[in-house]
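Record copied across here:
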Amino acid sequence: METIIKNFHVQIDSEEILKRLHLDKKKGVEYVHELVELANSITTPEALYGVAYINSVQPSKVFINKITFSSHVLSENLRNVGRVFPYIVTIGKELEAISTTFKLLKQYCLEEIGNITLRETVKYLSDYLKSEYKTKQTIMHEPRQTTRLANNGAKTVIFTLWRCREISWC
């Protein structure tokens, strides 16, 4: 069964953005503070997750709900694990839609703000799963980085893990 988590907020700090973009606080970067405030006010973080069980782990393959994942890294991470939580997170469409109204440098800043907001949303989900399922640790594995999938990408595999073709997510 899939669970949607809505109505939570992640707060991004301007100082973190300035540091990540290697911008000097003293050299006219007030616009960064304004963009962070804008992003904090319009993003709508949400998470969708499910519970799936590991059938077996081999040196470079993992079988989850009878679906094969070919990845040495994933097999190492899941060696002593019995269940996983496939997930999808979003921060909504608003930030991307509004970024096109800005000049290139501000668009880049908004993109980085969006990336950090997305990471904070994943962190929120990780903390939620630890609390909800009484786990001590979670490893948030991103399939696009280290896993070659037998299907047409992570989205298809996640939906297959959930045994559905379409999820209604408004």
User: Anything to note?
Assistant: Residues 45 and 91 are 4 Å apart (CA to CA).
